[in-house]
Amino acid sequence: MKGGNKRLFIGIFAALIIMLALISVFALFIFRSHNLEYGATFSPKYAQYLGLDWQTVFKDSVSDLEIHKYRIPVYWSDIEYADDQYDFERLDWIMNYAEENNLLITLAIGVKVPRWPECYAPSWADSFTDYNFDKSAIDFLAVIVNRYKDYESLERWQVENEPYFPFGECRAPSPERILSEITVVNNLDGNHPIQQTTSGEQSFWALQTSDTDVLGVSLYREAWSYATGEFVFPFSPMFYSVQRVLAEMFVDKVIISELQAEPWLSSTTFENTTESIDDYYNRFSAEDLVTNIRFAKRTGAREVYFWGIEWWYYLKDRGDTRLWEAGSQIINQ
After folding, report:
1. pLDDT tens-digit profile of 43-54?
2. Cβ(212)–Cβ(182) under 8 Å?
3. Which residue ranges does UniProt annotate as crossing the membrane (predicted)?
């Protein structure tokens, strides 16, 4: 081999070694082994939809599953049932129970909050102009922040839920209103971080990091739509890891705010009375839950919130404890 070619070969070989070393270091960084901190989104409305006593489900998730971090949707339409008239009974109960049991609560506030139909504007605001609608939404946030900001159990505020992701029965999102909501929350309570959320599968996370301290993302392996029926997202943990690393350049923390832990049910699921509990379980099994947890760990996220503990209880209440027990084992391992 001639001298020039030999030097070229050595240079290429050295470059490849350096590249492989950098890839290895990067892989170790984003796939490092670590313990997960578990929480759960809990919706009293969804528990009631499933025919359950929501207080029992919540208390049993604390005592049996030993969950101590919750994301609680604050439903505007339920609390401000008429203009400037409020019913805080349900949310007061949750926050007081959290105080008594040393729980940590993220309150999801705004027009769009977790669980279908996603947006919970009260019917009395339906005819409002955009200006009056936005003003009423911001006024409601101020009421909630002032009522609960001094609770020791409050960990952070989530302002809206995936506001720019076109999913749900919602008015078109108003970036000006959302920015105003964040400003109002910060002005009224400078002691708790702001969390925003985005679709983990269908957005570029780093674009959702302005004006927030914590970014929450979804992690769904399987989904359903009217157009396609059931489908599987084709992404690997690397997809989420790279997005996480980029987003963490702009926020304090990236968490998985929704880890799929239940089947994606169509609106007609419960109309099909021929399905058995086994059929329901087979839509999403304990093995699926374990698989999703392993996947979540490989993304490098350290805080994960289950999406579906109400469903676990629904099956448990009908004699199938497999998901409930699998969740308990994962949380307490």
Report:
1. 999 999 999 999
2. yes
3. 7-31
242 with 95, same domain: the answer is yes
Shared domain for 126 and 251, answered yes or no, is: yes
Identify the domain containing residue 74 by its residue range: 36-331
